[in-house]
Amino acid sequence: MGEWFGILEGMIPPPEDVDPAWSVPGVGDSTRYPEDYLNLVRAYGPGLFDDFMNLFVPSSSNMHSSSVYNTTLRIDEIRQYRRLNGAFPSELPDLDLSKLHVWGASEMGEPMYWAADEKGNPVDLVVVDRRWDGERVLYQMGVLEYLVRLLRGDESVSMCPGDVPAETHTFESFAPGQCPVG
User: Fold this and answer.
1) What is the pTM of this model?
2) Residue 75 CB contacts under 8 Å (≥ 6 apart), including other chains
3) What integer is the mean pLDDT of 63-67?
4) What's the pLDDT score for residue 91?
């Protein structure tokens, strides 16, 4: 499954039982998901890394752990923010919202997106929107690489600096119907 998956497995072994109540891709979803993200959710399922990083699955009966649901919710929030305040207060250009897909969120609710190109193919770009100041941060790497770097403390995380990196890494699977934090 690749170098980054091997590193993650060494840090946090996948759970033995992964919630099967989700699908790849979601019903009626034509999104082309990044392979590293699909490998991640196949192995771990929906859950919480190190008590702060929610991992969503493409489609789930539990809307709170569904990428499809969270993408719709977060994109609506961005559109509302733009209507009220204009562009994000960031030096980075605004991305085409139709090309962003939520794969996770911090315990504070900051969404983590992966991006797609103009043809809908995933690109190695992780986008983090910090809700408390509206800043958007781009990372030129895939979902799995970003998660590993975040857990190791290679990437700074201004949204939860006291929590990252954890001394002992954990993964808590979400039970069907369980609501993620954030």
Assistant:
1) 0.82
2) 97, 100
3) 84
4) 39
